[in-house]
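Can't paste images in this forum, so I'm doing it all in text. The chain is below; anyone willing to post the predicted structure tokens underneath?
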Amino acid sequence: MSGDYIQEFVDVDGARIGVQVYPEPAGPPGAPVVLIWPAMGVRARYYRPFAAALREAGLA
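Text version of the structure:
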């Protein structure tokens, strides 16, 4: 399972939001896109293995 992602930051209304972007999965283009929004009190890194598994399953 690959955990490679790119950390980007977006400025919205004076707040800076970190976004972890995983590369497109191998296979045909146009894979469904999954957006994971962390729950309150749960750090985003908790979801990294889940995001990597979704990518391995062919989801963007």
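The longest strand covers residues 6-12. The first helix runs from residue 48 to 56.
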